[in-house]
Write a structure and sequence with these properties.
The structure holds 2 protein chains of 2 kinds. Chain A is of the alpha+beta class. Chain A is built from 5 helices and 8 strands, in the order ααβββαββαββαβ. In chain A, a hairpin with a 7-residue loop joins strand 4 and strand 5. Chain A starts with a helix and ends in a 5-residue tail after the last strand. Chain B has a 6-stranded mixed beta barrel. In chain B, strand 4 and strand 5 form a beta hairpin. Classes of the chains: A alpha+beta, B alpha/beta. The interface between A and B is large, with 115 and 165 residues. Strand 4 of chain A pairs antiparallel with strand 14 of chain B, so a sheet runs across the interface.
Chain lengths: 195, 804
């Protein structure tokens, strides 16, 4: 973090004091909203800060995430002023990235399973899901495995399981996927890069 | 990108075609505006007037799917007016090479076309070689069979009037664009071309990019500061996911997928390692065996030995010519041949073309695994419009993943910068890293295959090296990252230096073909120093060239080179062509500036010098490009679905080798009065792709709540539609209800006297959420793909619009 930004935040805090005094007897709605923002700025000042990279287009803008030290929750995400590409600025999506975090109640937080013919999801555990998925992969793979093609040439491939995605996970995760699908013998392997 | 985002500020002329950078890559526009403030000319060519157009010095429309006609006209202009950079063209491209006498082009077809197979026999698309095996050249460029003369002849047909009749772009605008852009064919001016899906999502998508690359080479704009061919890619790590080959046709680091014709590792390496007889060609890919063997060592560790060909035989092989891309994947799923689908962070129910076909195909699956941070139309396909859950037997596992800011790891941007991110908070509830899901799944598979004595071909699963968890059982991101970079697996002495077993390999130049090194993706080798320092996490902003390369901010592949092919920015003696922006210079026997494309001296040194395009076997760039499936020169053809019945340049209406399908959902209606309007699709600033992440965010949906179609004031009048009316947009494959947005941003085009209406839609919506936001524009798009990549034609097809 640059000292310039810290100075700016300190200055903004001083402004709150001034507003409180002058607010007697007038409509406080906008001032309260402003004060809320100021409280947030106070919290951000004491938060743990980590850098990240935006998760949308591939400009690769830098982010600063502020995490409350007590709750461990992300409380603010903004553009990284030190980042040479975005120099602190973000587009509408990037500026709203906070809503991809736990603060968004729509986030998936449980393993869900939909049984054949069912019209609803059931909550399951990771152990159950990983075991059941692995069993299905094995069964489908072992049934469909092609040791040779129609000409009798060695192919050692699996055509009845496909993999798709993804270009919005990290490199290390991409490499694990690229490794897994080849070990399984898959050939129907594709993702967003082509489309 | 050959260049990088910050470098856009150095363009003297910036041509955006097939990109709405101001709205879709907004931060990139900061650098474009910097160039403009400096006096650069910004040109925007697009069917629709957007915020990008509003900032451009020159805006002009074109009919969707006619980019090659426009670029072909520019090639013709550059050659006719002698605007090309002759020294660059002669020395750094294959312009002077003499082409096979039997190569021919006639009435829209190149030599070797077989209408029965709809394929070309490419055996005549070759360069003549002398007795030593070196290309025959005519540096005067006068030989009638040299590449330059064939190029000139090919594009002489693209006269400006014909181009205008095809594209609908007024002649005076074409002249303005050509004149401005061709002004960069001098040593001290740079032109850059920026494109996005507007160029690639066509049945001639690859040839679109070839055409603009030819322009850049003629003008000497590749390898220079402020120049380049720059794809503005649309996903945060699409560069990385491509580098790591979540693709059927490549392996990590752009190595080739295995096929049946390469039965042994030796066959495979022989087939894929190019040979050059020219001593001045570096032919960098002669190192191919080092990269492949190091990859096999990363995958199979100690189990990969010389005796077992490093595990080569454990990997799947394609039949020669077999295509396993998404188009064939969905087609085979709809035929019931694919039974299981693992889908990670992608929403094919809305993102793939012809959504009805895709959604129906899912019903044939026994099981689907879906990993994401929000629910979407793919995971929930069984309860979508027209679906009866009771009749759908597919089991679906929907797995909650950690979001980007909740994960440590690296991400590669369009400019090839690999940037490290940190975990800002633990992911909520049961969410875990996608990497952890993969680690757990493979570990469980290993257990099942180890314990089942009858398991089929367990070798690759059991032998896969899989030790990527920390002492808490969580994914050890740094360990995976170092495996990708690569290790010395024993003490290795190279030159006068000995590297220790366990050291990271600090450059791919040090990788070995004998199993003494590993590297999970050779182009990433060098992201860690020998002692394990993570260069991707760097945040130093020193800028020694003053050009904004920031060599100590993060790390860029390859070997931290910020602008690739940079040896083409200097003359034969290594002197920068552009003294105002010297990217590289040969000073006192060494290179100064960016990391050069290889250490060799410049070309004037006849003993040690090398040609600049080191990844090409001949050492120069290809104006004549024989590697593609649809011709060595880009040629204009009409889209699969279009408003015209004839191609003004030949009797071949469509590209003869594009990917087409013939299932019940694959209907096509070209020049059909029932579907009279050209449709193109795009995104908005507030949403990302199908909206699968952004539609769950109230701040964004408040700004862009629902699906809409943009139509011109003229078309609105013709159809009795008012701004805000509800309308049905329909193609022969499907329909979408949406709101009409009547706008002057779209104007009818005059294509040779025929008035053509173009309409446009965003592809950001789906039926699941928010309620009543509408459904996907891809219900309308055709299942048709580029002849080389299979990239679908989302950007040009035919629809009708009616008021409802």
């Amino acid at each position: 973090m640059s000292s310039t930004r810290r100075e700016f935040l300190a200055g903004a805090g001083a402004l709150v004091g001034g507003l409180a005094i002058s607010s007697l007897g007038i409509d406080l709605t906008s001032v309260i909203a402003y004060a809320e923002e100021m409280k947030k700025i106070e919290k951000v000042k004491t938060a743990r800060q980590t850098t990240s990279i935006c998760c949308y287009c591939s400009v690769g803008c830098g982010l600063i995430c502020s995490t409350d030290k007590k709750t461990g929750k992300i409380i603010n995400i903004e553009g990284d002023p030190d980042h040479p590409i975005n120099e602190g600025s973000l587009c509408a999506k990037g500026a709203g990235i906070f809503q991809t975090t736990e603060a968004n109640s729509h986030r998936l937080t449980k393993v869900l399973y939909r049984a054949p013919g069912s019209d609803k999801w059931q909550v399951k555990s990771w152990n159950w899901a990983i075991t059941e998925i692995a069993k299905r992969i094995k069964k489908t793979r072992d049934t469909g495995f092609m040791a040779k093609n129609s000409k009798g040439e060695v192919v050692n491939r699996v055509e009845n399981i496909a993999h798709m995605g993804s270009s919005n996970i990290d490199n290390e995760e991409c490499w694990l996927i690229a490794s897994m699908v080849r070990a399984m013998g898959l050939v129907y392997i594709d993702h967003q890069a082509r489309v | 990108m050959t260049n990088h985002w910050i470098d856009l500020q150095h363009g003297d002329v910036i041509l955006l075609q097939g990109s709405n950078a101001a709205e879709n890559h907004p931060i990139s526009f900061k650098w474009i505006m910097k160039a403009k403030e400096r006096g650069a000319i910004v040109i925007h060519v697009d069917p629709r007037f957007t915020r990008t157009s509003s900032k451009a010095d020159i805006y002009t429309p074109l009919r969707p799917g006619t980019d090659i006609a426009l670029f072909g006209g520019m090639i013709n202009y550059i050659i006719e007016k002698e605007k090309y950079f002759k020294e660059y063209v002669v020395n750094y491209t294959n312009a002077s090479f003499i082409v096979n006498d039997k190569f021919d082009f006639h009435d829209g077809l190149f030599s070797g076309y077989n209408p029965a197979t709809r394929k070309y026999d490419k055996s005549t698309w070759t360069i003549q070689k002398d007795e030593k095996g070196i290309p025959v050249k005519d540096p005067t460029l006068q030989h009638p069979r040299c590449v330059f003369q064939l190029l000139k002849k090919h594009y002489s047909r693209y006269d400006i009037e014909t181009v205008s009749r095809i594209t609908g772009t007024p002649v005076k605008d074409l002249l303005k664009v050509y004149e401005a852009y061709a002004s960069t064919g001098v040593p001290d001016r740079a032109g850059t071309i920026l494109y996005a899906l507007g160029q690639t999502q066509h049945t001639s998508g690859v040839q679109n990019i070839r055409a603009l690359s030819i322009i850049q080479l003629l003008l000497g704009n590749i390898g220079i500061c402020g120049g380049g061919v720059n794809a503005l890619r649309g996903e945060p790590n699409v560069q990385g996911s491509t580098d790591f080959a979540i693709l059927y046709d490549s392996l990590p680091g752009y190595l080739k997928a295995m096929t049946v014709s390469t039965k042994t590792l030796e066959d495979y390496l022989k087939k894929n390692t190019p040979v050059s007889k020219d001593p001045m060609s570096a032919n960098w890919y002669q190192n191919y065996p080092k990269y492949m063997v190091s990859l096999l060592k990363a995958w199979f560790g100690d189990r990969a030995t010389k005796e077992n060909e490093f595990g080569y035989s454990w990997l799947p092989r394609l039949d020669d010519g077999q295509i396993c891309d998404v188009l064939n994947m969905i087609d085979n799923m709809s035929k019931g041949k694919i039974k299981g689908l693992i889908c990670v962070a992608q929403n094919p129910a809305c993102s793939l073309p012809n959504s009805n076909k895709v959604r129906e195909a899912f019903k044939n699956l026994d099981w689907m695994v879906h990993v994401n941070i929000f629910n979407n139309e793919t995971a929930s396909f069984w309860k979508g419009p027209g679906m009866d859950p009771q009749k759908i037997k597919t089991e679906v596992f929907l797995l909650p993943a950690a979001a980007s800011v909740e994960k440590e790891g690296s991400q590669t941007n369009s400019g090839r910068w690999v940037q490290w991110k940190y975990e800002a908070a633990k992911a909520p509830g049961d969410c875990i890293y996608t990497g952890d899901i993969i680690i757990r799944l493979v570990s469980k598979l290993k257990e099942l295959y180890r314990t089942d004595k009858k398991a089929v071909f367990p070798d690759p699963i059991l032998n896969l090296k899989w030790d990527y968890t920390d002492n808490k059982g969580r994914m050890d991101v740094v360990k995976v990252s170092k495996t990708i970079n690569g290790y010395f697996l024993e003490d290795v002495t190279i030159g006068d230096k000995t590297y220790k077993k366990g050291d990271c390999v600090p450059s791919f130049a040090l990788l070995q073909a004998d199993g003494r090194t590993s590297s999970g993706c050779w182009i990433m080798c060098g992201a860690f120093t020998e002692n394990g320092t993570n260069l991707m996490a760097r945040r130093k902003k020193d800028d020694p060239t003053g050009l904004g390369l920031y060599p100590q901010w993060a790390w860029a592949w390859p070997v931290n080179r910020r602008i690739i092919y940079n040896r083409a920015s200097v003359d034969l003696n290594g002197k920068p062509y552009n003294p105002k922006r010297p990217l590289l210079a040969w000073v006192d026997g060494k290179w100064v500036g960016d990391v050069p494309d290889g250490p060799w001296p410049p070309m004037a040194d006849k003993e040690k010098g090398k040609y600049p395009f080191i990844m090409k076997p001949d050492g120069v760039s290809s104006l004549f490009g024989p590697g593609l499936n649809d011709g060595p020169f880009p040629e204009h053809y009409e889209p699969l679905e279009g408003p015209v019945t004839n191609n003004l340049l030949s009797s071949q209406l469509r590209n003869p080798v594009i990917r087409i399908f013939s299932g019940p959902y694959d209907k096509v209606a070209s020049s059909d009065p029932k579907y009279p309007f050209v449709m193109t699709t795009y995104t908005s600033t507030e949403h990302w792709c199908t909206g699968a992440i952004t539609r769950w965010q109230s701040w964004l949906t408040e700004a862009q709540p629902q699906v809409y179609v943009e139509i011109s004031e003229e078309l609105a009048k013709l159809k009795g539609i008012k701004n805000g009316d509800k309308v049905k947009v329909e193609s022969v494959r499907g329909s979408v209800l949406c709101v009409a947005m009547v706008t002057p941003r779209l104007q009818p085009l005059n294509c040779g006297g025929k008035s053509i209406h173009v309409v446009g839609m965003t592809f950001n919506y789906g039926w699941l959420f928010p309620e009543d936001c509408g459904d996907s524009a891809n219900l309308l798009t055709p299942t048709a793909g580029d002849a080389n990549t299979g990239t679908p034609e989302y950007k040009a097809f035919m629809v009708n619009i009616t008021k409802v």
